[in-house]
Amino acid sequence: MSGDKLTAAELAASIKEGALQLTEHGENVSRLCTKAQSEFNIFINFNPNDITKESERLAGKVGSGAELPLAGVPFCLADNICTLELKTTCGSRMLASYRPLTEDGAVRRLKEKGALLAAKGNMDEFGIGAGGRNSFFGAIKNPCNPEHTGGSGAAAAVASGAVSFSLATDRCGELRQAAAYCGVLGLKPTYGRISRQGLIDSAPSMEQAGIIARQTKDLASALSIVCGADPQDPTSSSCGVPDFNALIEEKPRSVKIALPYLWDDLAALEGEVKDAIAALLCRLEGNYFSLETVPLEYFHHASTTAAMISAVEAFSNLSNYDGVRFGFRGESKHLHDMYRQTRTEGFSSNLKKFLTFGALISSGKYYHDCFLKAQKMRSLIKDELEKCLLQYDLLVVPTVPFKAPLLGSGISPLLPDFAAYYTAAASLAGLPALTFPLKDPAQKGGLPVAGLQLIGKAWDEKTLLQVSLLLEEELL
Amino acid sequence: MGKLEVSLEEIRQASSDARLNLTPQEENELKNQITDFFRQVTFLQYSELEKVRATYYPHTQENILREDLVRPSLPLEMVMLNAPDADTDFFHVPKIVE
Known about the structure:
The complex is a heterodimer. The longest helix of chain A is centred in the last third of the chain and has 28 residues, at 364-391. Chain A is built from 15 helices and 13 strands. By secondary structure, chain A is α/β, with parallel strands linked by helices. In chain A, strand 9 (255-260), helix 9 and strand 10 (289-294) form a beta-alpha-beta unit. The longest helix of chain B has 17 residues, at 24-40. The N and C termini of chain B lie far apart (46 Å). Chain B has helices at 8-17, 24-40, 76-79. Chain B has a domain at 8-51. Chain B is built from three helices and no strands. By secondary structure, chain B is mostly helical. At the A-B interface, helix 10, helix 11, helix 12 and helix 13 of A face helix 1 and helix 2 of B.
């Protein structure tokens, strides 16, 4: 019996009942990861022996009767989420040999429930951008078509079938974009739902952990475990955590959906993506859903607003990479030259330009003319979305305006970032958002056409998951 | 507010503030990217933004205070674990004065 087609809950149940042996299952996970790594360059840190050892340890715990709802469920972590046993590199030369001194709060919770950490996923340097082509460890290939980017190793690992789910970070929408490129589900919960302790972020007011999976039930299983207040993270919320596993079984009675007026008025929006989204929206109407277009005056400013805010936050947040206490050090005979040499050699050209942009707009006249105005525009975007969601259950838009870009097309500039056009608004407002994959049935096994993004009310991940399950099981 | 124009001198000052060296090619690429970017950010000209409050975090945060108790800190060997150059209880760095 193979575990790679089962949901997380089914897999854990099979292990508990003895239908699947954890040690054999661990070897299978190890084989799948090795294959995925050799074909798609998905992982940065991956050791088959660690998987074997951890499977044996978990087998002992299961044998002694421990209650482990995720026993043996393999997962991948983006390599900016800290673990004690593996290096955490953030996809950067700067941290290529960094060993964390702490463990991420969400990872600790997953391990306590028996989940099996398989590997650390390749990623764009410090999670900035989802082009999948700006990692010190090489470009990430898309398992659906290796000539195209996979966006992130976390998404590609799920798409390849090597793991059941991944935990990754979402700054301006990178998690959702990568999931759409790979044709899998991606959920960015409400800001504060998941502890950020142990996460090496670049933009703390927007960046947070989220989940990528092939099945909605796996999103719900992982979410139920990783959510909750963490005394070590002041941004984590004490808002109650429902049992998402039980809640998603309830069918939504009728869902009121808002679609921004002129949602398709974007030059970068590919015709194929636009057609797929339009066709799906037509099918949804009348089937549990009512759809109305709404005027949103500020939504289209979200990606540029987010770019400015995140550049300033990254300039500040990454200022401690100076080669003294940890990470890469550039050679120099003078301390101040060493700082400069370390950062110049340790960061990629793309990141250096982004940090310089952050330094520029947080100083002098640009502070008032750009950065402060971006923070004010953030208020307008947030207020507008929240007002809209008082009248509607969900807002829908495409996830990314285009299919996964070709790997040979060079590194995408971070200014402007068209990929974040539809995803940045939920990040600025801290709202939950889920991307649902749309595959072209005529192109079996080909590149996914698009992702449909559902944006929900704060703390209402339940509706996102219920609608996702409905789409998965009945409508598509 | 007039049209924003960024100069190479400003980019050099910003990269210096960020303790980074950019090559002349990177400086020019960034100047072009920022010029294009400012052209797209039309809201920078909105006068109504003057009266809008700024948002720094998506949700209101409460200040969480823990009890003021002494707790064990990281052992020195852990603190030094990732240092590029260190002795048992201090970091080695190049000299500051000539």
